Amino acid sequence: MASITSLGIGSGLDLNGLLDQLKEAEEEKLVPILKQQETQQTKISAYGQLQSALSTFQDAADALNDSTLYESLSTNVDGEAITATADGEAQPGSYNVIVDTLATRGTLASDGVTAADEAITTADQTLTLNFADGSTQEIDIASGSTLEDIRDTINATEGSGVNATIVNDGTNFRLALSSSETGADESINNFSFDGAAPFAADTANTRQLGTDAALTVNGIDITSSTNQVEGAIQGVTLNLQEEGESTVNVEQNTLKVREAVTGFVNAYNDLKDKIGDLTSFNSETGEAGELLGDSAVRTVESRMRIALSSGSDGQFSVLSDIGISLKRDGQLEIDSDELDNAIVNNQGALSEFFAGGSDETGMAGQINTTIEQLLSSNGRVSGAITGAENRKASLVEQYARTEQSIESTMSRYRTQFGQLDGMIAQMNQTSSYLTQQFDALDAQLGRD
Fold this sequence. Notes:
alpha+beta; coiled coil; Immunoglobulin-like; flat; 45% helix; three-stranded antiparallel β-sheet
């Protein structure tokens, strides 16, 4: 049989076109598998959104599950002289603060030199800085140093006690020193060189000694080397801003508690909205949410309803006791007046309701436990994600097997079509030969 190098040449038939049509028909087997893969990927993404919303709600519940939240204090300052912050040791109270003097840094400048970038030392020597409390700091200065070099050496020396800059007074350049810390004792007082001094300290004209802050708290005199005063009021840090008078009120931090409760309600409502989106159905368009009718979502909703409706034996037993109600659409709603009343007047009962006596006994703790169970490696949500991922992996394998089957089928078709092409070509050759022989015979008979 003659060898056929291109389908259809021997037979004259469009066998390649026929093969293409057969391949398109075979590849239709892949379409439903791809659609199922997309469906599983969509579900995985949807479960991830549900997981994220649950985690956010869990974080909001955790904030309410901390008993120290209901013990925290805040400072309210009337006046511009100070700002203040309170820590866990502070006690409620009101304090009158009068700032008489702010703490300042000591400053000192040198005599002038004609150029800042020309060498002014002829040998290695030591610069000694003298401070108001009698302490000193020695700094090694290299031979051939310029004023800029001396500045840089001082600033590079750890614990020098000063910051150095260069000031041009219009005629000469001066080394200007400023104490690193405020206060009288930390003030730069003088400096000297142990060798030939390139310049001297201008103590007569430029020395300004640092000062301590002076203030009174409820009439009690207080001094501080810094403008951040700690310990004058137990658990309160005063930051002095200017001379003047301010009143500091230390009180329960109702704002922080309200923000935590509001954050809890908003996070739950966001979770409810997300579930609504994932399980929605539009009757007009026929479009459905990715998890419509999903059993994992129904489990989440059921567990959340149980956790939110659980009660306690304290003064506040259910959410409605503190002004939080469950609406018909499943969202939580806050009655601001009732909630503010609970926060302002009974944070102890509020703490017992949300935080309880341990991490698991209050409502927030119970919600946290429920979500942990749902999101754990063997929980309902994680199990749903794992199931969807396994189904997708199985479909990927099925797609690969189907592709191999299609390729095998097409290879068989190519072989069969090649054989058909060869057979038809041979038949055409035989037909042509016989025709020629009959024509020759007819011609011979006609001559006879």
